Amino acid sequence: MDDQQLLRYSRHLLLDDIGVEGQQRLLAAHALIVGAGGLGSPVALYLASAGVGRLTLVDHDTVDLTNLQRQIMHTEARVGQPKVESARAAIGALNGTVEVHTLAARADAALLENLVAQADVVLDCTDNFATRQAINQACVRQRRPLVSGAAIGFDGQVAVYDPRQPDSPCYACVFPPSQVVEEVRCATMGVFAPLVGLVGTLQAAEALKLLCGLSPTLTGRLLMVDLRRTEFNQVRLSRQAHCPVCGA
Fold first, then answer.
1. What is the mean pLDDT of the chain?
2. pLDDT, average across residues 63-72
3. Are 51 and 12 in contact (CB under 8 A)?
4. Fewer Cβ atoms within 10 Å of its own Cβ: the N or the C terminal residue of the chain?
């Protein structure tokens, strides 16, 4: 690290669990963020501020006025722009040393297979069940840790699925691909603005811990957040032997 980096990341360097070695791991790391909206905003900004050296963001959508209530990476001046380009501007203003790659495209299976293989950690910041399953499948095949987040109304959840660990479930162990899911969207159900900030920040924290080699992580646990009551609850998750994605 040069003098500027030593100064910029000094508060990380003071932490015994991170220090110089951990910060160097972050600087050399590559994170894939799928979704540049409510969850993707705090995820991208915190990973960039923490010094993750390379970020790849995937999102097919454009910035809309209704996004600004919660998607803190975007601004009024960038309404109408692709979200990934708005994200690039926000990240560049925060930390110009981060290498940012963007794709204004839907995250289909073929695209994810290639992108996941190049990443050290993957963050699912989407709101679509089929896309979540596709991300999970790619992570299992490529053996990449997945940090999953979801938020709607006043309720959110965060989990880590790490196929490098033999006892870790995958997303499909918990939410089978065959189950019938009624898509719940912010446009129809609403979402409490700080909720996505909280869930996305927790996702960023778990990703940074994975990249630094810190433990324990949320692997094998589902953290549930209820901001109406300001309650946090955990559920233990088990790998399913007959899971169609990670099962033997």
1. 96
2. 98
3. yes
4. C
